[in-house]
Amino acid sequence: MEFDTIAAISTPPGEGAIAIVRLSGDEAISIAERVFQAPGQKKLSTVPSHTIHYGHLIEPSSGRVAEEVMVSLMKGPKTFTREDVVEINCHGGITAVNRVLQIVLNEGARLAEPGEFTKRAFLNGRIDLSQAEAVMDLIRAKTDKAMNVALNQVEGRLSKLINRLRQEILETLAHVEVNIDYPEYDDVEEMTHRVLLEKSQFVQQEIDGLLRTAEQGKILREGLSTVIIGRPNVGKSSLLNALVQENKAIVTDIPGTTRDVIEEYVNVRGVPLRLVDTAGIRETEDIVERIGVERSRKVLKEADLILLVLNYSDELTPEDEKLFEAAAGMDVIVIVNKTDLEPKIDMDRVAQLAGKSRLVTTSLLEEQGITELEEAIAGLFFSGAVGAQDMTYVSNSRHIALLNQANRSISDAISGVESGVPIDIVQIDLTRTWELLGEIIGESVHESLIDQLFSQFCLGK
Ligand code: GDP
Ligand code: ZN
């Protein structure tokens, strides 16, 4: 495919030591060559691919030196877009980088639309749709765990799995087709049924497995909705502050994909916590008092994690007990705070109330126990298989919707075979499953969907 040459600033807005203007397209190298002056009159069109060059950017109209730059030159197809790509590294700061962008635009590049670099990678067959979406997830990924999920998808793990399932379906359909053509053999019908059932069940199991990872994927992407509950003065605000201070935002720098600074987020050992505003309050004081056990249960049900805080230096009260009641059956970590003070709480009773929930003692004042708390949070969500890095998580809502639809049509196929409906009806369900799975990786996708998807990207990606 042939496209015009696009350019954009591919570093995040704001300050930073360097900024990068990226060009992609047939004219990328010639445009750069016209505005670049290197020591010894080196010509960009003659240097080897994938090399970086020091020099100056010149305003062609005046011949004046505009910027000191490093230019990296990458010839297609071994580039992110599969086109010729030039990256101009200049000093950070809005004026410098805008001047560089203006110069290449004046020379004939077109300002890229949001996501257009990634869209080209897709259209040029460099990546499939699920990989393109993963790049988008990478840009938005908030923790390193979420980043791994996205990276796995960029590498095409999900695509491989989907392709395998589609292949299974195709082979099954082919098999059925052959048997329909030779109806004279008696055992053919029985065999067709058996194969159809086995293969369909296999495909459904795999789809089910993928859907089961979706919840975990969603958590990684969106954060674990977390509510801190406890009586007034037990230390809820202090806990919130401790978590925010201890856990810094993550900055990512993945070549070819994103140089975005990720927004601040409470990230506890790779588990993103989204501190939820429940009914307008992050930390929920006497929630049970105010709205009663039943209603607070409902509010708390929306949360993925509850941090229940108690005061070590105070007797347990009926309110404390009600909090346990309201949080029953949920993922709870019990925090007994203020261990620097005189003990008054009945720890045996606390342990009894906590049951299987994790129990941590802290002195937020003296910064004690915070590490243990973080370990408890991480342990809760990354124990066992869930923490395995090489798992294929599905975290994209479009993928989940398509998998759910595919699951329904494969179920239809299975119940069709079981109840003996005509084979051609079953074939329709199987074909539909195959199509739905195909949409995940961008086969048979309509143009408008593609535009919509890519316009969600940041500029310069
Ligand atoms: P909240 O009402 O539950 O949000 O409690 P705060 O976080 O506002 O804390 C109430 C008071 O307890 C404040 O004066 C805190 O400084 C104090 N506090 C918090 N954690 C500790 C602790 O571990 N030990 C001691 N001695 N005081 C604490
Ligand atoms: Zn408070």
Biggest sheet overview: 7 strands, mixed
Q: Going across the major beta sheet, what is the strand order?
A: 3-4-5-6-2-1-7
Helix content: 40-55%
| Multimerization status | single chain
- Identify the CATH class of the largest domain: Alpha Beta
Count of DSSP strands:
14
The chain-level structural class is alpha/beta
Q: Just name the CATH architecture of the largest domain.
A: 3-Layer(aba) Sandwich
Q: Strand content of the residues, in percent?
A: 15-25%
Radius of gyration: 29 Å
Bound small molecules, by name, code or SMILES, are: guanosine-5'-diphosphate, zinc ion
Shape: flat
CATH topology of the largest domain: Rossmann fold
Task: Give the tally of structural domains.
Answer: 3
Low-confidence stretches: 248-264, 277-282, 384-390
End-to-end distance: 19 Å
